[in-house]
Amino acid sequence: MASPDDKSLDGDDPPDSPSSNALEPAMTMQSVGYSMHMYPFPSHMLPQQQLPRSKRRQVKNACTNCQKACKKCDDARPCLRCVKYGVSEECIDSQRKERKKGVKRGPYKKRDGKDRAGSSVDQADVTSQDLAVSNSGPPPGSGSPPLVAPFMPIPGYFAQYPPAHLMKPMENGLYPQYLPVSQHMQLSSHGGGPEAEPGGYPPPHQYYPAFVPFGPPPVYPFISRHDGQVPQNYMIFPMHPKVGGLNDLTSEGQGWDEEAEEGSDKAS
DNA sequence: GTTATCGGACCTTCAAACTG
DNA sequence: AGTTTGAAGGTCCGATAACA
Ligand SMILES: [Zn+2]
Ligand SMILES: [Zn+2]
């Protein structure tokens, strides 16, 4: 089951999807309220073997439609997916079942640095070792990818934005803040394609932060919902209905971000 | 080419188990 | 009381099937 819907309607804008419509890039990424984790360098400039990735963020409660479709939802109601499908009125939070109590669990095994002998060797040394990018590690995706990203997210640097060439400042009145990697730097879509990530995780982005020396601060139009509410963090970038320009400037499509834990909402 | 389906990896939540 | 553990329950990636 190819996930074409990912690239089109279900619009989960997967890594290989050049975001065929304006909603896509903006919605998926920020929709969930998280920023993306981005790589400061193109994939080929990184140690290919251990492309680190941050955790995937999920919404606390997907709407019934997205849940049914096993697709990415967002916190707003109606969610963008439902809006795209024109079923905004059917966008309602799915019902969560209550966790059952009284379940006995048996003794725990300690794993505070000590005593992790024999048990889980994986999660302990991740920090130091993975950070030290070694070439001997297992291919990403084959095992458990590093949980710690060697790169810190660059504030204000969002790779999900569409290529600059699609955002014509003068024509749309928008000012692109991210420019596509120069031709020679682009990910050569050589065998493997845009999402040739072994781990199946978001490939490095092809956009580089760029300072826009001209024009006033960009004013991005927000997606307006039928109910008048504006999805937070959503931004629409005017662009051609069909992207296809720079080979495959994949617009990346997940929400990867290490973001500080959004203060666990629940107080114990 | 598109959209629909869904297996399963990944993530979050939170009670039980544990500790001081 | 607080902290840690770890499994239940959840989201959604990404592969595949079906269709136009
Ligand atoms: Zn939804
Ligand atoms: Zn919805």
TrEMBL record:
One of its GO terms (molecular function) is DNA-binding transcription factor activity, RNA polymerase II-specific. CDD domains: GAL4 (cd00067). Residues 1-10 have a biased composition (Basic and acidic residues). The keyword Transcription regulation applies. Residues 120-135 have a biased composition (Polar residues). Residues 62-91 form the Zn(2)-C6 fungal-type domain. Residues 97-108 have a biased composition (Basic residues). InterPro entries: ERT1_acuK_gluconeogen_tf, Zn2-C6_fun-type_DNA-bd_sf, Zn2Cys6_DnaBD. Residues 1-29, 94-147, 246-268 are annotated as: Disordered. Keywords: DNA-binding, Metal-binding, Nucleus, Transcription, Transcription regulation, Zinc. This is Transcription activator of gluconeogenesis ERT1. It comes from Asterophora parasitica.
